[in-house]
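SAMPLE LOG
Freezer: B-3
Tube label: C17
Construct: single chain, 309 aa
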Amino acid sequence: MAQHIAQKLRLTVALLGTISRKDLAAAFRNVNPNTAFDLGRADKWLQGRAQPRQLSVYDDWSKVLKLEQPGAWIAESDLPGFTAAICARHGIERAELERRVGAQFEASSGHEERSLGLALAGTYACYSHALSPYYRGQLIRGSLSIETGPGARGLTAAYREVLPTGQLLVGGPVSPAKRGLYAFLKETGGDAHFFLCLFPQSRPGSVLGGYMCGTTIIGPEPQPSLTRILIVRLRDPVPEAWGGYLPPDGSIARDLASLGVTVEQPEAVDRQLAQFLAGDSDGSASQIPPAEFRAVLDVFDRHWLSHSG
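STRUCTURE (predicted):
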């Protein structure tokens, strides 16, 4: 029964000094031009999500490593035994081989981060439900810029809204993950905070979407609020004066056309985007009325005070 295939492949990669999956596949082809080593499945094999089913792959693997043991031994051996065998065959210390594995993992992770950073970096037009009770039911337009940090290893975002009271600008780190894309945004010199929880980015990355959470900026009192948000990639920078509340009869498709994003069947697209942004709400941001929370607060404050001391 095959075991530890992902770890054995990583040890093989480190031993050979191969840089990419293609280099590893080339090493297999060098020993057998008709090898069953599948480049398309190599990622899954290296991640431990699958393993080669054809014994010929393991036979070719043994030839790649110049081992005396047959392919079946590679598949079934324990990890310490496999490591000892390839170290002895190639005259390399185990510690050095493990160091190479670690170095290659870091290089691979860095490459993936840089690739993702470049894929996300850019300027976006954002549409979400207005949080202010004075503009309930309307959409507000914002601009988002995502940039790579020093060495392309970090991502930062800046989100801007043009409000009647002035410009709101919040910024902070972007954290890509397998299950989502997250951004923690804070106003410099102010106390506004927003959190974006988005679907994971997909290629080619024309649009992002998910939720934005924050508190009202314009209103008699702050209200914790949640709204869906649509984030559309632009090819050109956003004009400085663009933004603010979209008129009640405004068209997102028409608004995007003014920014250089022209879509076919704009009326149908408007209906689709309106449905996405509304979700299961009443067409406005999801908010808890302050009076509703104060009523709950009053109950527990009275209980707490009556039992204190």
